[in-house]
DNA sequence: ATTATCTATAGATCTATAGATAATGC
DNA sequence: ATTATCTATAGATCTATAGATAATGC
């Protein structure tokens, strides 16, 4: 058995859990987390609701597993966030409406009281803004051509990405998400 | 009885309905629409759940009434959307986290399948983008100083407003929403 | 022997309907 | 007479626990 296989070898149990997490992603896209029933997820993987709870003891444990799939949310690693890569990310997102819908539904719910994803998103945005600022600094230095500091441009960059996703999910025909995002990058980069 | 009073006179029933809509706004902010139970709304206005259903026959009728409070969502009338007024709107929003939380929770849920607010938001964004473009055209003509056409700048403006709201709701200490929005307007207006 | 899955079920909800009673408006 | 509100309740869910049975791994 080659090393590669050994490294990625998954037990039956791990396979099952991965299947379940995938199904959960789908059901959350369709109904949100609060609206996602364990029975609906179970049915999608051919289990009873009680069979599903053998793999994840509570509904919240399922959500934690979903949020833990960081590569789904942050398709690009740490410091590599140059402008061209951001455009590539937005173009990639425009090809996977399901994931973006899951993300957007969870983000929306997360602002409600006591939502189990709230801390996750709060931390995530702190991190993402910091990474963005770092990337912008690497590309432009202390001032962008537009005159903004990297720290002030970062939340705008993130806001445009998220805000465009909602407009696009609601009306994909009317909103060219990648083109709009490129327009925004032009604004940031022009002086 | 002066005319003014006659015009705004409300029957007991209208008063009650308005109270109920207010309470619904609050409960949606706390739990989203799917998580908002009729019982929770009823309790807040001192009614039983069945008593509430006398005023609104179904849960969805309640949501329709909430979405109908257009002045809550669009605090500024039609064509008056000049830049200063937009800043004023964002500053106003920063003072009413409850309403923004209701709006953001509903927007997030609305992208899920068959959500009763979906059509509302789809239409609303079409309208809002058109109004924004119109306002930008009135202020700048066919090209903004940044070189964008009003039609291309409009979705970015809306995206920034919505995206900043999520970041701000999740972490108000870290995000100065009005300042960030002003930064964005500077980007748009500078050449 | 351990892991996976199932049946049975408790105990909370939830929305909505039916019909009785209390309050209000002419 | 009409409107507002209540009690009672149907009928669906929902999450989670308990415990039995089947499948798998050493």
Could you characterize the architecture of this molecule?
The structure is a homodimer of 191-residue chains. Chain A has 191 residues and is an all-alpha fold. Chain A folds into two domains: 1-57, Arc Repressor Mutant, subunit A; 67-191, Tetracycline Repressor, domain 2 (Orthogonal Bundle). The first copy, chain A, contains eleven helices and no strands. Chain A has helices at residues 3-8, 12-35, 38-44, 49-55, 59-68, 70-73, 83-93, 97-110, 118-140, 150-170, 177-189. At the A-B interface, α2, α8, α9, α10 and α11 of A face α2, α8, α9, α10 and α11 of B. Chain A binds a DNA duplex (26 and 26 nucleotides) through residues 12-13, 16, 37-39, 47-55, 57-59.
Specify the CATH architecture of the largest domain in chain A. Orthogonal Bundle
**Biggest interface pair, counts:** A-B, 52 and 52 residues
Strand-residue proportion of chain A: under 5%
Label the structural class of chain A.
mainly alpha
Instruction: Report the top-level CATH class of the largest domain in chain A.
Output: Mainly Alpha
């Amino acid at each position: 058995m080659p090393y590669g296989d050994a490294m990625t070898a998954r037990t039956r149990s791990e396979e099952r859990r991965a299947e379940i997490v995938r199904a959960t992603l789908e059901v959350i896209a369709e109904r949100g987390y609060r609206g996602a029933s364990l029975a609906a997820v179970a049915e999608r993987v051919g289990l009873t609701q009680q069979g599903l709870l053998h793999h994840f003891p509570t509904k919240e444990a399922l959500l934690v597993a979903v949020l833990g799939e960081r590569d789904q949310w942050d398709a690009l690693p740490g410091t590599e966030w140059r402008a061209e890569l951001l455009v590539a990310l937005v173009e990639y997102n425009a090809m996977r409406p399901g994931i973006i819908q899951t993300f957007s539904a969870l983000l929306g719910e997360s602002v409600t009281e006591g939502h189990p994803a709230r801390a996750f998103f709060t931390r995530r945005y702190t991190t993402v803004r910091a990474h963005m600022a770092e990337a912008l600094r690497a590309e432009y230095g202390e001032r962008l051509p537009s005159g903004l500091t990297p720290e002030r441009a970062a939340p705008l960059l993130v806001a445009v990405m998220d805000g465009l996703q909602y407009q696009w999910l609601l009306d994909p025909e009317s909103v060219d998400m990648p083109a709009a995002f490129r327009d925004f990058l032009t604004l940031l980069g022009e002086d």
